[in-house]
Amino acid sequence: MSYYLQSIRSEYFIWLLYTFTIVEYSFFCYFIYTILQKNFIKKVVPFIWMGFVLLALIDIIYISKKNAFDSFASGIESIIILLLCISYLFSEIRGSNSLALYSTFNFWVVITFLIYFSGTFFLYLLTNKMYKEASFHRLYFIINISSNILKNIFLCVAMTMKLNDTVNQQKATIPDLDDDLFIQSSTNYQS
Amino acid sequence: MFFIEIKNTLDISSILVVGTLGMLVMAITLVSVIVFHQRRVLKFNRKIQKMEEERQQLLLRASIQSQEEERQRIAADLHDDAGPLLATARLYLNENLIHQEPAIQLQAIFSSKQIIDDAIQLIRNISHSLLPPTLKNFGLEAALKDQFEKINGSGIINASVRFHDNRERLSDEQELFVFRILQELVANIIKHSSAGFIHLTQNAQGKNVYFRIHHDGKGILQQDFEKLEYHSSGLGLKNIQSRVRVLKGKILFEIDSTRTYYKITLEIPR
Known about the structure:
Chain A is 80% helix and 0% strand. By secondary structure, chain A is mainly alpha-helical. In chain A, α4 (71-94) packs antiparallel against α5 and α5 packs antiparallel against α6. The longest helix of chain A has 39 residues, at 134-172. Helices cover 68% and strands 14% of the residues of chain B. By secondary structure, chain B is of the alpha+beta class. Chain A binds chain B through residues 82, 86, 89, 93, 98, 100-102, 111, 114-115, 118-123, 126, 129-130, 133, 135-136, 139, 143, and chain B through 9, 12-13, 15-17, 19-20, 23-24, 26-28, 30-31, 34-35, 37-39, 41-42, 45.
């Protein structure tokens, strides 16, 4: 769709990119907000979200409206997402949870974001400067496709974890069939 | 100019490649460190859990063994003492008694009565050793005072009890557990410490009740208690610890700052 839009009305393409970046960032903020433990970072996430959205709007309206790519917004987005991912991982390590972190759905989704945005950080940052270079197109293709493949592999692992969680939850809903209650009630009158 | 542009493009391309690879390496290193750290923490937790399970097993085994020993003691008392007494009484009251002289009959009945009285007393003693009637009827304070009076009466050791705040009593089950713990501690002091006096003090603070035993004999400290609890073949200390755990309380073995007497403090939440 983006290629189609770029081919017919290229002046609107940058708007589409910014919208995508804001929506993507908003989804990520919502996700990280729901999985973060109650701490300072969790409180700060909504403000970071608002700050970034404002910054992106100012950038598109006043600064980068003539640009071909939203490198500035993508760069800032990547940095914020990487920092939030690292914060999540450290807060999980510090929490005294006996559950293996790497066997949870949230961990693998966060790893997906971490790897994907690490891989594409420099790419998106330099796209605006280099999109006219023919050599860059090849690099762009390789890095973008590799990062997407990695992202999809990690998301598949995350989905597998989610599937296991669901199966375990179903197992846990089986009622306790021990007769403890009956034993207690039948022995109470004797004491 | 053309060459400079090519050089710049190449520079930026290499920055892109190196930067991307660097970021990926950093991200993968971070994830690996986190995963290894987690694995280490989990391994450590499992080790701690295993140790705790072993400890629980030890206490459980001690408790079962103690129950078995108690059963054997009761069985031996009944078999060796009550059995022969009742058999003797039966001999006196055999079928030939009705053919005997009245005086002999009276003598046999009197002897049987004596033996049956002895058997009753014996069974009462066994019953009292299982659950002191004073504890059941009048509570922990009376039971401990009774116990300490008996110890005092033996003349071997000077024993005294003082309850400061017993307005809010513990539950019956808690009192029985505390009684057993203190009984075991006092028995140990009498047996091993060669003490001249034992003094028991009770007090309450907030939601906790405290019992403290002072004695001037040869005592043990907290580290000795923990060591003996694990390595000693005796059941006494293991039973004390398992009862304290059931009560969710604490026990502390100390020596006075003047090093003249030992203190054992028992903290029990109400």
